[in-house]
Fold this sequence. Notes:
By secondary structure, the chain is of the alpha/beta class. It has helices at residues 4-19, 50-61, 85-94, 111-121, 158-164, 175-190, 195-205, 218-237, 242-258, 265-272, 276-288, 316-322, 328-340; strands at residues 39-44, 70-74, 99-103, 126-132, 149-152, 292-295, 310-313, 346-347, 354-356, 360-365, 380-384, 394-396.
Amino acid sequence: MIMEEQIDYLIKIFQRRLASTPMTFFRYLYSQIDWDDTLIGIKGPKGCGKSTLLLQHIKETFRGKEQERALYVSLDNLWFSTHDIYDVVEYHYTHGGTHLFIDEIHYYKHWQTLLKNLSDDYPGLYIVYTGSSMLQMESSEGDLSRRLTMYEMRGLSYREYLQYEGILTLATITLEYLLAEHASIAMEICEKIKVLEHFKKYLEVGYYPFYKTVHHGYYQRLQNVANQVIEVDYPNVDDVTISTIRKTKKLLMLLAERVPQLPKMNELYKELETDRNQGLKMLYALQRGGLLQLLSDNTKSPDNLSRPDKIYISNATMMYALSPHIDIGTLRETFFFNQLSQSHEVRYPNAGDFIVDRKYLFEVGGKGKTFDQIKDIPDSYLAVDNIEIGHKNRIPLWMFGLLY
């Protein structure tokens, strides 16, 4: 059994992190979570602010002596290499604890079984946990589906970036409202700020909130995030060899150089010295790890490991970190796909670049973009870069960053 002096170490770390947690900016997901649920999971790419979100909730909710009812632990702490999380929970529960926040839960080998056991063995204990999107938390060996509420967190939207920087606070808008009222919305915003200047900076660094604390070597840090997904997370989920890890790294870098053309998969498999089945497994592992976006048409399901129609790096900022040369057309499409897929179905159309919710057709491009490719198609729009204010069905690209 764990002793009081042993758990003091964890409590000191928890209190230190809590004291340094800022309360000036909250991610979009914070207000969407029903914190009264007994088992909550939050998944998302590394570095998107999941840990801060947990600590903000604790800091806002548990004040004074009430703070003793909550315990935050991160399972990537080396302390857990010689101590058992079960003992920590037992101590917390028997000493009046009612809420447990587990960060980086995927570092525990059988984390699904752990959660099931904690839910069964500690009645009245509220549990919130986070893990990387590499791990498929919806399906678990412990069958958590009956009791679990799962949320997914993305990186910063352009709207959130403006607020995070203290430039401008805006409410989210729906896609339907944007399509109908974009000109008046843009005019109001452009009276206050230089949207294109800030948009350029957002694309370069703004997707991951930790850019503010990393002044040098930011892209190296993002490359390290990618390496950790492949070297640590991937082997924890699938039984993969060192050779497969090496090939997965090579696959990511090859795609970073070549996206988003229609992938010539057979050539890729040959270059990687692998077969179709293994190649697709690696591809979808990179997607689940938050490093790639895979675009398919309506007839395909992302669950059946079918060949995607287009492959993109997951977001514009990661693209800057991984791609040796930035193609502006690819950058625009990457941003659009990333922002819309947060809460909409985005598919590969017969004409144009993207079809959203099986209804709205979009072509993405620069200010000289015309409707030639999608003319006479109902509900078709241009998402145009380098313009502040649009007209009719020509909508500024930056405005699609206001949706969450």
